[in-house]
Amino acid sequence: MLDRIRSLFGLRHKQRAIQPAQWASVEARLPFLGFLPAAERERLRSLALDFLATKEFHGAHGLQLDDDTLLAIALQACLPILNTGLQAYANWVGVVIYPGDILIPRSEFDDAGVLHEYDDEVLGEAWEGGPVLIAWFEHGEQPAGINVVIHEFAHKLDMENGGVDGLPQLRPGMSRAVWADAFSKAYEDFCADVDLGRPCAVDPYGADSPGEFFAVVSEAFFETPCVLQARFPAVYEQLRQLYQLDPAAGERAAGQSQHD
């Protein structure tokens, strides 16, 4: 399987390997890609093919990885690095795709020193220096409001400067103090919304930690950018600078074109 993947998506053949109809079919399942200008869509396609040529892909529990699945994963994985490049994902090679939820064995000691072992059901996990695990669902079966691929690859960016703390490696000219101020205030407000059961602009799972908050707002930045911008404008602005993209402008333009 891996040899076939590398042959199909090899850099020397990438211009000829994927036909426009196949790109259109795959991208139809990812409507938020329509928020990107045409030139950036083309760059994303090229980066996705480079990503596929340099990573190793494994289907867990007998999952057969077809070309459309690989392209869909690569397009989403490369959105956060469209303007930084593959070096952001340089220190690891594996992507493991599971058919549905993932069960990961865990063990932990409680306050009394008793060891507890259990299976943790997750949709994905990124390991520092190691692979990315992704739960993959057939079209229409993905949990609503969740993008596992973008979420886990946002964690990979967060890990670039050590740990998962919600502070990725910022782009030149960005201020750590401004980032921290925007995210700490938004995270506090968001956790209050979750605690009080108020409607949330992003996945409530983000209240688990600042690292998870960064991952879920990154999902929203690409999938529901106008909602994120309206609820957390300072966070949206920091992500706009980090990713060097403005999907909210693209979403508004797409909505306007539909009404013309």
From TrEMBL:
CDD domains: Peptidase_M90_mtfA (cd20169). Transmembrane segments: none annotated. This is Zinc-dependent peptidase.
